[in-house]
Write a structure and sequence with these properties.
This protein is of the alpha+beta class and about 325 residues long. It is built from eleven helices and eleven strands.
């Protein structure tokens, strides 16, 4: 038979491949193939050309199968790995303290601003002798606000200082070991509250010419400490009655350095009370709003309250050279 003669003329590999195909065919199909091959041999096509064509066909078939397996492998890999990466990504978004001060992740996951918060704003709104009713129209806006002398009557202006804080934290069991957020900013050698309250007096007061300046902040999340500190500063009188307050406040104190430009990734609006010293604030819009909004700075004094939507405005602070500043900060919403 013509097909059998063709098989015998090919290599062992080709013979085995064709034989397996032939065995799967019905007698009727095999007969028709014999007729077809007989007609082919009546043309000018040689056996060698047929052999090469068949070998190329087998090779192409094998390559196609390999490509199919590779494609299936890639698809399977994507189906397995994508959910894993998605879970990791969601974890980084929802648990923002996974890495300390991980501003890169926070910035990559923040929503894009629509610029309405900063359009036409190039200075803070300055208010004086304001009541809760007067403050209501501005309470939940993104307009930066200074309320002059709003906290000047607080006992904290006279009583709160480094010594008071040191005595309080050292006498409350576990307060120094509480897992609260601690920010050393550029004071790299002060890594914890224990380090902070272990500073020598000359550095605390910055009286030595060789002493390194320092500026730190932390959340006073220990319930006993928080209760004692809030005896020195009440809830700001101008905040709305229904405004929720957190179970933590922040203390910032130190010399010169202040805070670098950043956004706060917090759930509520922020107020800050300037208790000691003067501070300069610098506000800047988010990068996508640079073409429609402006950066600006302002100055606050002891007794002033500052309200800035630090979730929207990039902000940084600085303290005049050689001066000391202390502030209390909290949230509302």
């Amino acid at each position: 038979m013509v097909l059998q003669l063709l098989i015998n003329s090919l290599s062992n590999t080709t013979e085995g491949y064709i034989a397996r195909i032939r065995d799967r065919l019905s007698p009727n199909i095999r007969q028709k193939l014999d007729v077809l091959h007989y007609e082919v041999f009546k043309t000018s096509v040689t056996k060698l050309e047929l052999q090469r064509a068949l070998q190329n066909s087998i090779k192409d078939d094998r390559v196609s199968r390999v490509n199919l397996f590779i494609a299936l492998g890639i698809l399977l890999f994507v189906l397995i790995v994508t959910p894993v990466f998605f879970q990791i990504f969601q974890f980084l978004i929802t648990v923002r303290c996974f890495l300390p001060n991980n501003y890169l992740v926070w910035e990559l996951t923040r929503p894009i601003s629509d610029c309405s918060f900063c359009r036409s704003i190039d200075t803070p709104l300055v208010l004086q002798n304001i009541t809760r009713t007067d403050f209501a129209p501005f309470a939940y806006s993104s307009q930066p606000i200074i309320i002059k002398n709003a906290v000047a009557h607080w006992p904290a202006l006279k009583l709160l200082n480094y010594s008071y804080l040191k005595d309080l934290y050292e006498k409350v069991p576990g307060a120094l070991d509480e897992d609260c957020q601690f920010l050393h900013f550029r004071s790299a050698d002060i890594k914890s509250l224990r380090d902070f309250f272990s500073m020598k007096k000359s550095r605390v007061e910055m009286k030595g010419e060789t002493e390194l300046t320092w500026y730190v902040g932390w959340s006073n999340c220990h319930p006993v400490v928080l209760e004692e500190l809030r005896k020195l500063y009440p809830r700001p009188h101008f905040l709305p009655e229904d405004a929720e307050m957190p179970n933590t406040d922040y203390i910032f104190l130190g010399y010169e350095q202040g805070a670098f430009m950043h956004l706060d990734y917090i759930p509520r609006l922020m107020w800050q009370a300037q208790l000691q010293g003067n501070k300069t604030w610098v506000l800047a819009p988010t990068p996508e709003c640079d073409n429609v909004c402006h950066s600006f700075s302002f100055y606050v004094e002891p007794g002033d309250a500052v309200l800035v939507d630090t979730r929207m405005w990039y902000h940084g602070t600085s303290i005049p050279k050689g001066e000391f500043a202390l502030t209390i900060q909290s949230e509302y919403g």
